[in-house]
Design brief:
five-stranded parallel sheet; 9 strands; alpha/beta
């Protein structure tokens, strides 16, 4: 009898240990950014964040047709089957999804999304210097900042009101990936990687200039600057393998970007400037895709090398949550959610959004991310372990 009682106690304890991470994940996966009290979010960048501006520029584009948006039952112009990382950031801040700035007859009381798919950080003049040709839009981040200025001037009639609005908002500035991806190799004899490294100082300088502009001209107090995703990676039986050349460029960019952001923090000590670890988010996703319920880490869900997603005859997988890759360049709603659960606890710590984290101690970000990640694991597992624990406790 004592043996049975001890065994039952051990089983209860084991079940509790299984459930605790899930409960921690559900708590950490809530509105972690809500404590910052953001009145709005303003976002700049490319297709990673675009919620419909590219579609407004090019009506009838494939991102406006099925199966884009299939998971949320409508094609919004997002380059995914559902929501993207910026939508999850807004959700964590208690802010509705951001409407695209270029879409007519929508309101922007909670901020605006200025990001446009396919664009980069470099201005038109800088792109010409480095032979960068964007695929279909010239609305790079410098243009988006002009839209931001126009929006503020239209919405707020005096400088004080505009500054107060921006001071209480979160600003997210991304968009370097397309500058690297769209170098015209025909115009230089240098290898691709060498060309990518040559334009890196200009991209870092542009990032610094844009962040300074947001702080000095508009009064930004909290700014997130995402790095570049880990690129050229595939899951194989022997582990995750990445294109060393492409990965080295992305890693170097992210390293130098963090150094640049540290210099900006020293220059503007009263401003929270936070690095968004996209590299770490994708790395964690590739390392733990099975725990996240993903069965096809390498294949794309929509389209193929011959027919682009959204075009007539393009293949569609039917179950995007089984995949990391939505199309040839973007992730699924499920993958973006998992990456967001990695990022958001770090952002909350860096921005000082924790209920007991007024100083925004970044050293707590790793443990916060670890707790948040459990919320992304397969929901049936969480349900099963919770029910098992309740059954054991009631029958004890």
């Amino acid at each position: 009898m004592h043996f049975l009682t001890a065994a039952r106690s051990m089983l209860c304890l084991s079940s509790l240990l299984l459930v605790l991470p899930c409960l921690l994940g559900q708590a950490a996966g809530g509105r972690l950014l809500e404590h910052c009290g953001f009145t709005a979010i303003y976002c700049f960048g490319d297709s990673t964040f675009d919620s419909g501006n590219a579609l407004a520029e090019f009506p009838g584009g494939p991102m406006g047709r099925f199966p884009y948006g299939v998971t949320i039952h409508r094609a919004t112009g997002r380059f995914s089957d559902g929501y993207t990382i910026i939508d999850r950031i807004a959700e964590a801040a208690g802010v509705p999804p951001l409407n695209p700035y270029l879409k007519r007859d929508v309101e922007h009381s909670n901020g605006a999304n200025f990001a446009v798919g396919g664009v980069g950080l470099l201005s038109k003049e800088a792109r010409a210097k480095w032979h960068v040709k964007l695929p279909f839009s010239n609305s790079s981040v410098d243009i988006q900042l002009k839209w931001f200025d126009r929006h503020l001037n239209q919405a707020y009639r005096n400088q004080t009101a505009r500054r107060e609005r921006v001071e209480s908002s979160l600003l997210v500035l991304g968009g370097a990936g397309n500058d690297y991806a769209n170098i015209n190799l025909k115009l230089s004899s240098l290898p691709r990687v060498d060309q990518m490294k040559r334009i890196m100082p200009d991209l870092l300088a542009a990032t610094q200039a844009y962040v300074k502009k947001l702080i000095t001209e508009y009064g930004a107090r909290k700014v997130v600057v995402p790095g570049i995703f880990k690129v050229g990676c595939m899951v194989m039986s022997s582990g995750v393998h990445c294109d060393n050349n492409l990965s080295s460029v992305a890693a170097l960019h992210n390293q130098l970007l963090q150094q640049e952001l540290e210099r900006l923090r020293e220059e503007f000590p009263g401003v929270r400037i936070v690095y968004g670890d996209m590299w770490g988010a994708t790395e964690w996703l590739f390392d733990h895709f099975r725990a996240a319920g993903i069965h096809h880490p390498n294949e794309r869900c929509c389209g193929n090398s011959s027919i682009r997603c959204g075009m007539p005859g393009a293949p569609y997988c039917g179950n995007p949550s089984d995949y990391i890759n939505w199309d040839d360049n973007h992730s699924t709603d499920h993958a973006y959610r998992i990456m967001s659960d990695f990022l958001i606890p770090q952002l909350a710590a860096g921005l000082g959004c924790g209920a007991n984290n007024d100083k925004g101690d970044s050293s707590s970000s790793s443990s916060a991310s670890a707790a948040g990640l459990f919320g992304s694991l397969v929901p049936p597992f969480r349900i099963f372990t919770t029910l098992l624990l309740l059954f054991l406790l009631l029958s004890a």
